[in-house]
Structure formats: C-alpha cells, structure tokens
Amino acid sequence: MDLIADIKEKARRQMRTIVLPESYDDRMLLAAAQLAAEGLARIVLLGDPESLRSRAAAMGADLSRTTLLSPAASPRLQEYVDELVALRRHKGLAADDARKQLLALDQLYFAAMMVRTGQADGAVAGAFNSTGDVLRAALQVVGTVPGIRTVSSVMLMVTPNPELGENGTLLFADCVVNPRPDAQALAEIAVTTARSCRSLLGVEARAAMLSFSTMGSAGHEEVDRIRQAADMARAMAPDLLIDGEMQLDAALVPGVAAQKAPDSLVAGRANTLIFPDLNAGNIGYKLTERIAGAKVAGLMVQGLAKPFNDMSRGCTVEDIVSTVAMTAVQAQG
After folding, report:
1. Sheet architecture: strand order including 17-20
2. Nearest CA among 3, 10, 65, 57 for reference residue 37
3. Is 111 helix (H, G, I), strand (E, B) or coil?
4. Alpha-carbon span 227 to 187, nearest angstrom
5. CA separation for the pair 116, 35 (Å, rounded)
6. Residues 6+ apart with CB under 8 A from 15
7. Distance (Å, rounded) from C-alpha 319 to C-alpha 188?
8. CA Rg, the chain, in Å?
9. Structure confidence by residue, pLDDT tens digits, 165-182
C-alpha cells in the first residue's frame, strides 16, 4: 500500500469533520464530492447552498453527502462574533468588524472559528487564497499548541530508495514558513515534526537536526544555534528521538554515521530531517524532487492547536483530497 493510500485508510477508520471555506473554487466542489464518495471525511462546504448545488450539478459533482453551510445564515454566527471579539479585543476589534471578518468573501475566519469551537475538526484552504491569508486566520483564531509558539510546515517526501527514511519516506521541515528560526523556534519545529511523523506514518520519529557539522566537527555560530536547538528539543520532549547537529550523509547513510556519530540512535537511520533555515529546506526538497526523483506526497501545517492546512494555488483536485485525508489523520492525533 502506498503512503497516500495508507493515510486515506487511517482517515476512514476514524472519520473527522473537515471544513472547506473555498467553495467558490470549482476544484473544492469536485474534491468534496470525491471525499464523500471515498468516505474519507465528513465535509462541510461554506457558501450559499443553492448556488453550490447548481454549480456542482453542472460539473457532475454529487454533494448529497456533503454539508452545505451559509455563514450568513448560521445560527452560530453571533456566538462566533462574540468569540472573535474576545480573542481580538486587545487589538481593538469591535463587534461590527468581527462580523465583517466572519462574513468576508474568503470565508477563512468563519472556517477557523468552526475549528476553534469544535464544529469542525480541521480545515483546508489555499487553493484560492495566499498562504499569508490562510495562516493569518488560523493563527488569530485557532492559535498554537500550548507550549509552542512556532507554526511551521512539514513535507512528506517519497523517494525511490526504500532504504532511506521509513521505506523511502522522509519528513522535511521547515521548507515553507520560517526564513531563519532561532534556536527556540528550531527546537519547536523539531518537536512538532517528530510528532507529525508519529501521527502520519504511525512510527516513531528519528529526527536529525541538519548542519554542515556533525557532532562538533566544525565550529561556528550557526552550528551553535543548531546544537542549542537540539538540546532544547530533547528537553521539551524527552520521549522523542531527536539528535544533532549532523550532516545529511551522517543522518541517512549507516556507514557514514558509524564513522561520524557512532553513539547516535538517529544517525544513519533518520526518517525526519530538520533543516537549519528556509534556504536549506526549500533548496533541499527541490533538489530531492528534481535530481533524486522524489515526490512531494503532501504538505501540512503544524504547530496549530487544531489542524488548518494550507495548499498551493496550483493544486489539483487529487491534491485537495490527499490534504484533507492528512488533515483528518492529523485531527485524530
């Protein structure tokens, strides 16, 4: 069974409710129909029900097993207004402005409030809206996990080499969000990514904090930052296997690990790679994709109190379906 098929099967076993605010994008309607047909999640589409049914019918998409909800007609609208005012009172948000945010055409804040209040277990957006807009709504309404201040991304990379990572699958972080995390933020990225590995793959993470140095082989302030982050991560989550600093070959190749980091429980068998900054992460995943023939099986936002995942605006219907399945599994854990 391939990775996405495995994730879909996990989603089916414990159905979750996922809200899709971008119903104005036809790909979301087609994805909602497919998600219902495959039994991957209980889907809520935000928008005018009559208009959604009409557009879906024109595309041959069956929304009969999907909940269609107009934010303006929701009986919970006033509750959401009050909650948003309470959340943003320190920023001077008034009730009228809160209502406008919740009824905005993008529907992101309404979806985020559904997730915050438990009316949905997670949300997926980004097919139409920018990453900044999606994460802004998620951060302001859903917030972060207690004890975690850093929101980051994790990529599931499937390589053609089954000896790497977990049968060829590796988790990469952070490749999208944080340009240069300080030691505390890098430690939080390591901890949340290790937990994502446990949730998505069902295995214990072996997380390597990547560097141009392995266990003190080079001295530099950048190495000090990564080493400090590794110490912080282990202190934050002593139940997780997180080690570093280490070079990429020491993290992945047993022979190199035996020479450079013989006492490490992670070196040579890492399945989770924590990059030192966004330059390295972005370059790393694209090199792996273009030169090594790996595939990006999914991208997930982590560090939020509840799942609210962002997508590329160039996503396909199948990308949306896969991301919703991952969001449902993330919500289970």
Report:
1. 67-69, 42-46, 17-20, 122-125, 308-310
2. 65
3. helix
4. 10
5. 23
6. 39, 40, 41, 42, 328
7. 27
8. 21
9. 999 999 999 999 999 999
Give the domains, in start order, of the chain with CATH numbers: 3-143+304-332 (3.40.50.10950), 152-297 (3.40.50.10750)
The closest of 71, 68, 70, 69 to 33, measured between CA atoms, is 68
Looking only at the bridges linking them, the beta strands covering 308-310 and 295-302 are: unpaired
Give me the pLDDT at residue 306, please: 97
Query: Closest Cα partner for 196 from 148, 231, 163, 161?
Result: 148
Residue 89 CA to residue 126 CA, distance in Å, equals: 27
Strand (E) or helix (H) holding 65: none
Least Cα distance to 82 among 99, 67, 59, 68 occurs for 99
Q: Are 304 and 163 in contact (CB under 8 A)?
A: no
Rounded to an integer, the average pLDDT of 317-326 is: 96
Q: How many CB atoms lie within 10 A of CB 187?
A: 27
Residues whose CB falls within 8 Å of the CB of residue 71, separated by 6 or more in sequence, listed in order: 46, 77, 102, 103, 107, 110
Placement of tokens 């709504």 in the chain:
137
Whole-number pLDDT of residue 1: 45
Q: Burial of 16 by CB count in 10 Å (0-12 exposed, 13-18 middle, 19+ buried)?
A: buried
Task: Report d(CA 195, CA 257) in Å as an integer.
Answer: 24
Query: Could you tell me which residues come within 8 angstroms of residue 9 by beta carbon, excluding any fewer than 6 positions away?
Result: 1
Task: For 104, list phi and psi in degrees, rounded to 5.
Answer: -60, 155
Residue 131: the pLDDT is: 92
Rounded to an integer, the average pLDDT of 119-129 is 97
E strands within 112-168? Answer: 122-125, 152-158
Spell out the residues 6+ positions from residue 83 whose beta carbon is closer than 8 angstroms to its own: 113, 116, 117
Identify the pLDDT of residue 2: 86
